[in-house]
Task: inverse folding
């Protein structure tokens, strides 16, 4: 039954470490770094993907934007926190998660650094926090004692929900009375309609399919809180960055350019490219998810990180007593030095090869 899927604890599943397949013709690098390389000298970056979707770095690889790295898919990630934990524990070289989760990981002693924004909310791509039309829930105060279904604890949905409640004037004691329940995204709509939860976080395909069925409306969206905003970043371990600076630089510039490609390319061309990439990688994935792709979700050209996108969650954790004041600053956690849209290589509004982009 669905009720057995509802849990009040974080998902802790981590992908198991895998060996590098012989097909990559890997040799062990000499010197300070033991990072594997391909026969032609490219640094191998292991990663976790997303089933049925194409990440910006996978797109960059297909578009030929990388020159010194080779990507190696290990598995699909279970959640953002699990993904960056896998990076911190050297199961993969990099990961992506909500910035609040990145702050918590770093504050816990993990030596990671954010190098590029990885996802956000724009006019077309965002998460809504939906209620039933007949539930009588109209304000934040109506949620006291109610259940909010989110995909995992300690990540985007939890932070945004609690921030919205705070902005709406609830005290910390009142906010603690709002129950956050872990529900797999695929089950969120059913749990909401059946009354097992009172609010459900729905984004992407889940929002796009739920809304036309009627009977639901968004109480708030993440876009309502901060406007169009970058919420997550890609992180690498600091020791990997120190040992492989050119590989990280190549990853950042290529992924930034691929993100820009997504931002300026017509949707039908993007979907066609994604279909081509998914079809040829042979992972037995559902192409129907691409019907619901709307945008990159990243409003900033080239995914440049803004300090406030990290500092706001440091302040949030400090305010809630989950982080010692002054222990960490945004400057400790991110860099834009390798991003061509931040370091002067390209103008911020230019295209993926630095070309002038016609205004729409």
Result:
């Amino acid at each position: 039954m669905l009720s057995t899927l509802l849990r009040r604890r974080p998902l802790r599943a981590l992908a198991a470490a895998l060996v590098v397949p012989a097909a990559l013709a890997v040799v062990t690098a000499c010197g300070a770094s033991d990072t594997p390389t391909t026969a032609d000298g490219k640094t191998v970056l292991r990663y976790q993907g997303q089933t049925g979707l194409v990440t910006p770095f996978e797109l960059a690889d297909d578009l030929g934007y990388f020159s010194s790295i080779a990507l190696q898919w290990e598995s699909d990630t279970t959640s953002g926190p699990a993904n960056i934990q896998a990076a911190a524990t050297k199961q993969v070289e990099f990961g992506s998660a909500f910035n609040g989760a990145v702050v918590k990981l770093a504050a816990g002693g993990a030596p990671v650094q954010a190098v590029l924004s990885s996802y956000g909310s724009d006019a077309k791509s965002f998460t809504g926090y939906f209620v039933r039309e007949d539930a009588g829930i109209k304000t934040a105060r109506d949620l006291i004692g109610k259940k909010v279904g989110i995909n995992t604890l300690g990540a985007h949905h939890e932070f945004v929900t609690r921030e919205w409640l705070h902005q709406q004037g609830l005290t910390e004691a009142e906010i603690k009375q709002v129950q956050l329940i872990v529900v797999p995204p695929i089950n969120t709509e059913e749990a909401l309609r059946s009354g097992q939860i009172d609010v459900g976080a729905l984004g992407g395909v889940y929002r796009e399919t739920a809304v036309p069925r009627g009977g639901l409306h968004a109480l708030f969206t993440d876009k309502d809180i901060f406007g169009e905003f970058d919420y997550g970043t890609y992180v690498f371990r600091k020791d990997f960055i120190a040992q492989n600076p050119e590989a990280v630089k190549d990853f950042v510039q290529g992924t930034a350019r691929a993100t820009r490609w997504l931002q300026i390319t017509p949707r039908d061309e993007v979907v066609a490219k994604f279909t081509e990439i998914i079809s040829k990688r042979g992972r037995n994935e559902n192409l129907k998810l691409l019907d619901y792709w709307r945008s990159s979700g990243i409003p900033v050209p080239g995914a440049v990180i803004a300090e406030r996108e990290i500092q706001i969650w440091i302040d949030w954790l400090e305010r809630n007593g989950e982080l010692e004041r002054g222990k960490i600053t945004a400057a400790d956690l991110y860099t834009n030095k390798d991003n061509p849209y931040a370091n002067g290589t390209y103008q911020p509004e230019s295209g993926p090869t630095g070309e002038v982009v016609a205004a729409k």
About this structure: The chain is about 35% helix and 20% strand. Residues 245-264 form the longest helix (20 residues). The longest strand covers residues 112-121.
